[in-house]
Design goal:
The structure is a single chain. About 45% of the residues lie in helices and about 15% in strands. The protein is built from 17 helices and 12 strands. A hairpin with a 2-residue loop joins strand 7 and strand 8. Helix 1 packs antiparallel against helix 2. The protein is α/β, with parallel strands linked by helices. The radius of gyration is 21 Å and the shape is globular. Bound molecules: NADPH dihydro-nicotinamide-adenine-dinucleotide phosphate (NDP). The site of NADPH dihydro-nicotinamide-adenine-dinucleotide phosphate (NDP) has 22 residues, from helix 10.
Length: about 450
């Protein structure tokens, strides 16, 4: 529980104001608890009301999206964009299209994005958006009409120097293409207003792979520095089979690990011979199919319906699906089966209780804000290339990504060390991100 009066007061006020914002309050509590040593040592943050300002977005936009489905029926969805904090750059963060989206989910994601973007060392503010629209089972034409209707409102709030959205769950290259087309049509401008674009119109090489690759670069660096070890010959389990999960699996395999399980929302597959990535890519990326189809073509593989991957024994666990997907029971199973390191590819995939259990059991825990920052980092590199009207080689982008991920590990460790917290990557990441944004806010005055 809280040790400083200031953090306690700010959290209780947030809770009293909107007790239904569960995910957002969870994310706020985690950050406030982490930064208590900083608040205790630096009264300036309370004097400048930094926490009250940080937990309130600069701006929050909610809108209706009206579109027509293939049957000619009018459909209505809710949509949001939280422009959370612009102290260190244009608002930056993805768009999520999933039926579970509501204002608390987007608000928590926007809040987390502020600290994550600060950790990259780039000039990126934090924001997030999305809609409760479900692209699953929709035709390309329906997805296009939805994206056009969504952008018909969003376009007036974004811009290459104002707010630069990207993809997230349910928003990949196809959706970004339709969103970009509509933005260009409405504004008559060709600018880097979205990232994750196709290479044909301003995308960056390496952006698709960046979150998953970055997660493995971060994990490898942590294993090297704190465990004198690496991916070689380790058993890896990954949840999800979307953008982040697939490229995490690819890099983990390249670094010598053996990925034996992956999942989607219908269950998980276990392949003792190691997951065949070509097959997963074909099923999930090309055919937009279900993961169960994998076992039809791999004789030793099994599909376990409606269960989570965390019951599979592993050395390295990479949650890459969604928030709160590792609860206390899942954490206990992982610990019992000997997991050595958990690195979060998804945003906030472990519940607070699960995190406590990992930390108490000396499992090395790599928090999402730091470990999955590779995606937004390469989005930042895409913005830089768009501004300069140049395209960097994949080697150049990958080299920069590796450097950024190593820097995040080092920054987190040195922030933890500064406050006497040892090798605490979890609190170190929150402290490092907080200090950068808070100090920029103080320098920019009372706004
Ligand atoms: P995708 O839409 O490409 O894939 C999401 C995957 O997670 C799918 O396999 C999906 O299964 C599964 N999933 C989603 N929701 C649930 C759920 N409620 N229960 C079980 N499984 C679920 O998304 P991304 O790979 O882009 O994103 C995954 C995570 O990574 C998210 O937390 C996102 O915020 C985070 N992230 C993404 C970044 C990016 O660059 N894309 C950057 C940083 C973080 P199904 O197909 O059955 O729905």
């Amino acid at each position: 529980m809280f040790k400083t009066k200031y953090a306690k007061k700010v959290f209780e006020a947030a809770e009293a104001r909107a007790p239904w914002e569960n995910e957002f309050l969870q994310a706020v509590k985690e950050v406030l608890l982490s930064i208590e040593p900083v608040l205790a040592a630096n009264p300036k943050y309370e004097q400048h009301a930094i926490l009250e300002r940080m937990i309130n977005p600069d701006r929050q936009i909610a809108f209706r999206v009206t579109w027509v489905d293939d049957a000619g029926k009018i459909q209505v969805n809710r949509a949001y964009r939280f422009e959370f904090n612009g102290a260190i750059g244009p608002y930056k963060g993805g768009l999520r299209f999933h039926p579970s989206v509501n204002s608390s989910v987007i608000k928590f994601l926007g809040f987390e994005q502020v600290f994550k973007n600060a950790l990259t060392g780039l000039w990126l503010g934090g924001g997030k958006g999305g809609s409760d629209f479900d692209p699953k089972g929709k035709s390309d034409a329906e997805v296009m009409r939805f994206c056009q209707a969504f952008m018909s409102e969003l376009y007036r709030h974004i811009g290459e120097n104002t707010d630069v959205p990207a993809g997230d769950i349910g928003v990949g290259k196809r959706e970004i293409g339709y969103l970009y087309g509509q933005y260009r049509k409405l504004t008559n401008e060709f600018t880097g207003v979205l990232t994750g674009k196709s290479l044909d119109f301003g995308g960056s090489l390496g952006r698709t792979e960046a979150t998953g690759y970055g997660l493995c670069y971060y994990t490898a660096e942590v294993m090297n520095q704190l465990m004198n070890d690496g991916f070689e010959d380790k058993t890896v389990v990954i949840s999800g089979s979307g953008n982040v999960a697939i490229f995490a699996a690819e890099k983990a395999t390249e670094l010598g690990g053996k990925v034996v399980a992956m999942s989607d929302s219908s269950g998980y597959i276990y392949d003792p011979d190691g997951i065949h990535l070509g097959l997963i890519k074909e099923i999930k990326l090309e055919k937009r199919g279900r993961i169960a189809e994998y076992v039809k073509l791999r004789k030793n593989a099994k599909f376990i319906a409606d269960k989570k991957v965390w019951e599979v024994a592993c050395d390295i666990a990479l949650p890459c699906a969604t928030q709160n997907e590792i609860g206390a029971d899942d954490a206990r199973k992982l610990i019992k089966n000997g997991v050595k390191i958990v690195a979060e590819g998804a945003n906030m995939p472990s519940t607070p209780k699960a995190i406590d259990l990992f930390r108490e059991s000396k499992v090395v825990f790599c928090p999402s804000k730091a470990a999955n920052a590779g995606g937004v980092a390469v989005s930042g590199l895409e913005m830089a290339q768009n501004s300069m009207r140049v395209a960097w080689s994949v080697e150049e982008v990958d080299q920069r990504l590796q450097t950024i991920m190593k820097n995040i590990v080092n920054q987190s460790l040195s922030a933890a060390d500064k406050y006497g917290l040892g090798n605490d990557l979890f609190n170190g990441a929150n402290i490092s991100g907080f200090e950068r944004v808070a100090d920029a806010m103080i320098e920019q005055g009372v706004i």
